[in-house]
Amino acid sequence: EEDRYSGERLAVNPASPNVVYFGSRENGLWVSQDHAQSWSQVMSFPVTGPVFNSEGLSDGVIFVKFGPPLGSSKAPTLYAGVSAHTNNLFFSTDNGASWQAVPGAPTGVAPTNAALSSDGNLYLTYSDIPGPNSVGSGLGAVYKYNTLTGTWTNVTPPGPYQFAGPFWYGFANVVVDRQHPQTVMLTTMDA
Questions:
Q1: β-pairing, 10-12 with 20-23?
Q2: Which residues of 37-49 are buried (b: 16+ CB within 10 A; e: fewer)?
């Protein structure tokens, strides 16, 4: 299936395991309050319908992540990435009742995956489209977003990257070592 290198679209609230969020391709963000027995669309989320990429396919809400509370909030911070070249990363500090765009998020590329480190950094991989077959004509990127300071840093590994055919490359999966939060691994896509 296309977009299989992207995700994770499903996330369980670590503070309330009965609450599960799901990012859909066509219909925005969904939530279950009863261990996935029933679902409802999160109408407060800014994206409630399809998000089409340059190939005419809808990729929608590509990942959902829970992070530590921010500021005076006691609720975990919820991050959701949308496969779009602008307005592609949102957060909520009130259990999904309201959402805000993360200021300064990269534009011109779409997020494909994210990993949150124990030191408060959110690592995001980007591509033109989520692949894995032909990531389009754009180049991939990797960014680190410090959730505590709001600072974005481009941490894309230096190339060159080998690729076959007329296509460029992107980045797909990213993981962070829980015991060593500065240790990050990621994969290229179409490279």
A1: antiparallel
A2: eeeeebeebebee
Type of residue found at 132: P
pLDDT bucket at 177, cuts 50 / 70 / 90: very high
CA distance 97 to 14: 17
Q: Which of 70, 191, 65 is nearest to 127 (CA)?
A: 191
With contact defined as beta carbons under 8 Å apart, do 30 and 22 qualify?
Answer: yes
pLDDT at 137: 60
Helix (H) or strand (E) holding 146: strand 141-146
Q: What is the pTM of this model?
A: 0.90
Residue 144, token pair as written in the block: 């680190």
DSSP 8-state symbol, 23: E
Q: How many CA atoms lie within 13 A of 180 on its CB side?
A: 3
Rg for the chain, CA atoms, rounded: 16
Amino acid at 83: S
- Residue 96 is classified by DSSP as T
**φ/ψ (deg, to 5) at 68:** -65, 160
Is the distance from CB of 39 to CB of 22 less than 8 angstroms?
yes
